Amino acid sequence: MSSKDLTTRDRILNAAWTLLESNPGVAARMSDIAKKAGVSRQALYLHFPNRTELFIAVTRHQDAVFGVQDMLAASRAAETGEERLRAFITAWGNYIPRIFGVAKTLLVMSETDVDAAQAWNERMADMHEGCAAAVTALARDGVLAMDETEAADLLWTLLSIPTWEYLTRLCGWPQERYLSEITRLARLGLC
Amino acid sequence: MSSKDLTTRDRILNAAWTLLESNPGVAARMSDIAKKAGVSRQALYLHFPNRTELFIAVTRHQDAVFGVQDMLAASRAAETGEERLRAFITAWGNYIPRIFGVAKTLLVMSETDVDAAQAWNERMADMHEGCAAAVTALARDGVLAMDETEAADLLWTLLSIPTWEYLTRLCGWPQERYLSEITRLARLGLC
DNA sequence: TCGCTTATTGACACCGTGTCTATTTACACA
DNA sequence: TGTGTAAATAGACACGGTGTCAATAAGCGA
């Protein structure tokens, strides 16, 4: 059994991950997570102070499993600004579907939960930095056609999780079309 | 007193409106709404079956007060497709800030509440229709540079409430800049 | 004054989170 | 083999918030 050799903490993280992914935006119940992990409800509180912190730990776990750092590092290695923009959009755009369920839940919770809000804001700030860096690369190449700050804001919005959700989940666009359209729109809008 | 001559139902609607507006995304407590309306908590249940239906009634109330129909009718009267697109973006883009608090709450709730989800989806479907109509007008003028359905989806996403929230609330853009940038991006992306 | 509607009051069931305590299981070490 | 310690369980509980219910009161038209 794949879950037998895992630590209790990891089994809890995986159970929460699965439930959040299967129902994006809905904060799974502690009792359901416990059941799925094959553990008592109280065991969750032995490893995490509360539900919010558990969910935050899941996002960190995902980042570690998927190796976000490496993903984004690739885009930083690009030669030209335009190539860097393309790589950044591709990397992040392909990351969203993998984290969507958990991220959406955290996004929803951040409206009412200060801890969730802080964790979410940090994530968003990181993303914005990435956008700003890509924009700066464009500016250095002299191809940026607008204010740097505004351009970063715009790119950040185009690459937001809600935008991805609208186009792929609600409009039914395949991931490929999402990527190509966002890339096209970003280049048109910024350059 | 302005609230003295209103019906109890209207005072409840106004109280809920105020609270939702003052804390977008957070579903106000029934007891707080009652207190603000100067009415007992149980009185709310005399006029609305539950909290979700109360909030939905608030959005209908807003639409009536603001006269959405008239607003959107103006954009339908435009001569050219491009003029219609511009008018539609302006009308809707200026409507969002007026309804943001309530709409955001309904959006958040729709993740867990089926009634809220249905009401929200209807609203979104209406918006999508409006986008499709504007796109069709562009196509009729022969200035549309992409598939009609895709164009409508794209416009709908650009005009979504999350997009507005990202640019104005999170990035701090003034409403004017939001309008001009979205208009520019829509024209670039569609034509 | 009667009868009807509207509103109030207080109590209650229900659900889910987070806390606490007593108890059990598993395992390392002597 | 026993003992100590950490990890986990079981069960009970407080709390906050929604929605329900029943009894009562207030306003008002006929």
**DSSP E strands of chain A, number:** 0
Largest sheet of chain A: none
Q: Quick check: average pLDDT of chain A? A: 96
CATH H-level superfamily of the largest domain in chain A: Tetracycline Repressor, domain 2
User: Architecture of the largest domain in chain A in CATH?
Assistant: Orthogonal Bundle
Distance between the termini of chain A: 53 Å
Determine the strand fraction of chain A and express it as a percent band. Answer: under 5%
**Element pattern of chain A in H and E:** HHHHHHHHHH
CATH topology term of the largest domain in chain A: Tetracycline Repressor, domain 2
Q: Which spans of chain A of ≥5 residues are poorly predicted at pLDDT below 50? A: none
Radius of gyration of chain A: 18 Å
Overall 3D form of chain A: elongated
